[in-house]
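Title: Comparing notes on inverse folding

I've been comparing how different people in this forum approach sequence design from structure. To keep things fair, I'm posting one structure and asking everyone to reply with a full sequence. Here's the target:
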């Protein structure tokens, strides 16, 4: 699977504010890795095929924004198309900072969930297994830390899905 990710600019700015002890700096405890989101966007159509787009470091959120209980998108292509967005708080055991210079984040989608099973919002795939192309990792302030795009990954009902992200600093 081809995947590309970036540490986004807004998070790098928050770290600089914290390091400089600026009044606007967020509380240190809110800077910790807290949650992730996966989405059915982060792609463009090339020759009739959905292909991941390079993730911009200016991103502040993933692109997908339709909740599982909302109607499907009727637009076939970006920028008007929208897809399912799934959010989940990380368990502390899913964030590992024991290797020097590397933080490993394991984002696991459960085997079954009302928010995932048959909830695609993409035009032409409505209410089928979701097709994910993007992932964002967030702190407790909901600032995005990392944004990644990747080849289509289908979340099948009854099967857990795991994304492992290594953040090198």
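Reply #1:
Here's my take.
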């Amino acid at each position: 699977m081809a995947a590309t990710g970036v540490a986004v600019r807004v998070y790098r700015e928050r770290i600089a504010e914290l390091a400089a002890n600026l009044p606007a700096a967020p509380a240190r405890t809110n800077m910790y890795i807290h949650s992730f989101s996966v989405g059915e966007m982060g792609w463009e159509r090339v020759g009739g095929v959905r292909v991941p787009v390079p993730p911009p470091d200016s991103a502040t959120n993933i692109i997908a924004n339709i909740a599982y209980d909302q109607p499907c998108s009727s637009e076939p292509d970006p920028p008007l198309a929208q897809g399912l967005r799934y959010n989940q708080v990380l368990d502390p055991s899913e964030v590992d900072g024991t290797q020097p210079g590397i933080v490993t984040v394991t984002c696991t989608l459960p085997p079954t969930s009302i928010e995932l099973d048959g909830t695609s919002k993409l035009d032409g795939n409505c209410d089928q297994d979701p097709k994910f192309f993007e992932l964002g990792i967030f702190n407790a302030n909901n600032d995005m830390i990392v944004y990644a795009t990747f080849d289509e990954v289908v979340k099948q009902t009854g099967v857990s899905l795991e994304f492992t992200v290594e953040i090198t600093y």
